[in-house]
Every structure is written in structure tokens, then in C-alpha cells.
Amino acid sequence: MSVQKVKACLILCVAVLLCGCGQALSEREIVRAVFFAQQQGQYSVCLLLADQNGGEDGVHYKTASARGATPAQALHRTEDTLPGQLYYGLLDLAALPPGSDWQTAQTLGTLLYDKAQPAPELSVFVLDDAAHSWAQDAANLYEDMKAVEQEYALHCGLQQLFTQADGCAVPGYRTDSGYDFYLLAKDAPARRVSGLPAQLAAVLCGQADNFFSAYHDGQALCKSEVNVTVEDTAVQLHLRDCTLQSLADADDDLQGFLCAELQHAFAALTNDAKADFFHLQFWHENLYGVGREAPAPTLAVVFE
């Protein structure tokens, strides 16, 4: 066979593979997000798909949903409602059910990993407690979660569900502003925190690098870049370009109130040693060996 014919055969093979064994990308069902919920003892799954027949005036979506006794069954039934071959290569968001625990996160994370291996930047949230109509709400939920991720420089990837054996931490979607944060220990009930404690938890987990939150009973606003350094279990929180704004026209000690609330939040977040969410025990054992009891964690707030 001539060199030209070999090249032509190779090009044809590559084209067939890229098109999904002869199926053009425009004929596939392109999944952008997957939402899980639990309803009446069953799982409900919604796939948000790109509507490729929606015209050129903006982004268009369509949905497919179904129920099942397990998440895998609900997802399989949802896929069966679609006529085309599903393509998960552009999937970039997944929402776990409200009230998820560690086992739920592991189960759904594994299921998503099997489906979404081509998707490098899949983001994970826990869904809020509101009742949602998938057909009416899925597109707005997707856009809102992506907006929260961008506005707060927040990111929890799928792989972060599996980096620790004793727990995982996931941001939670909320409809008003900011985000909640879920601490899911392996052998304990899930903990959800809101407001400044949620943003502190996200920073300590390495899922965010800024504060943009109200504090002091909603009378002040903090906006700051944040960097964390750790020596043993002593944490330093470095606040750079920090702007503190009074929302009540009061002459309060805004910096003092912020430091006090951060100290209180840190103490509450670290008083339960069921899971090493912030890797403090990990760093201590790297310094002194496995099995050595770690000193109580401390926090120092540094304004730069």
C-alpha cells in the first residue's frame, strides 16, 4: 500500500473515532450538567443537555429526567429516554442531593467518575433544599451555580470527593447569595455551615482564596484575598487587599469584629476530630510521626 493510501486510511480512522463511530457531534446528546435528588424514597436524576436545534440567539438547553431505586438506575432510565448517543465530554457540573452524607457523595462521585472521565473540569455542589421542577429550573440552577463559582473564585472538583479517607467537603448552592459549605465525615452526620464560616471552611479546604461575605450580624461586609500558611496545627490567615465596609453607618471596630468572628468560626470548625478536613493532623504527623497527638489548632489573622 502506498504512503498516501496509508495516510488516507489513518485520517479516516481518526475521523470515525472523533465522530463516535460515524455519528457526528451534532447528532449526539451533549450533557452539560447532572442533578441528583431524593424524592419519596427514590432517586431522581436530571440531565441538562445542550439543545442544538435551539437557534443561534444565545445558549439553549433541554432536560431529561427519570426516577429509580438507586442513583445508577435513575441515571440509566434517564439516558434511555433520549434518542441520541450521550456525550459526557462537555459535562462540567454535578449537583448532589440536599442532605447528602459521606456515603452518598462517594457513591455518586464514583458513578460520575465512570461517566465523566473525559470531562477535566467537572464542578460539584450540594443542591439546596427547595423543591425544583427539573424542566423549569435546571437551566437556571446550572447558570446560577456557575455564576457562584466564578463570583467567589470557588471550585470543588470531582476528585476532591476522594482525596481523604475519612471525609470530604463540598460547597452547597443557595438561592440568595454566597454559598453554604458541607463537611461530610465518614462516620458522623453531615455538617452545614453558612456565611463567613462557610467561606473560611472553603479557604481552609483549598477550594477558595477569597472572602466576600457579610459579618457582624449583617452590619459589615468583608472583601479580601486570602492565603493560608500552616506550621504544625498553627494556621495563619493572610488577608490581602482587604476592604471592610460598614452597612449600618456605624463607627464600629470592623477589623476587631472580623477577627473575633473568624476565631469563633475556626474553633467551631475544628472542635470535631472525626475527619481531618483541613489536613492539620496530616501536617502534624508529617512532622512528628503517625500516632502523635496533635496540639489544639490555633488561628492567627494577619492583615497585609
Structural account:
By secondary structure, the protein is α/β, with parallel strands linked by helices. It is 31% helix and 30% strand. The chain is built from 7 helices and 13 strands. The strands form 3 sheets. Strands 1, 2, 3, 4, 5 and 6 form a 6-stranded mixed beta sheet that branches. It has a 4-stranded mixed beta sheet with strand order 10-11-12-13. Helix 3 links the parallel strand 5 and strand 6. The radius of gyration is 23 Å and the shape is globular. The termini are far apart.
Alpha plus pi helix count: 7
Spans of at least 5 consecutive residues with low confidence:
5-23
Report the count of strand segments.
Answer: 13
Distance between the termini: 69 Å
Q: Structural class from helices and strands?
A: alpha/beta
Global mean pLDDT: 88
Order of helices and strands: HEEEHEEHEHEEEHEEEHHE
Rg calculated over all Cα atoms: 23 Å
What portion of the residues fall into strands of 2 or more residues? 25-35%
Tell me roughly what share of residues is in helical segments. Answer: 25-40%
Globally, the shape reads globular
Largest sheet: 6 strands, mixed
What's the short version?
The chain is α/β, with parallel strands linked by helices and 304 residues long. The chain has helices spanning 3-18, 71-80, 102-116, 134-151, 195-204, 254-270, 280-288, and strands at 29-39, 42-50, 61-68, 86-87, 93-96, 123-126, 167-172, 180-185, 191-193, 210-215, 220-231, 234-246, 298-303.
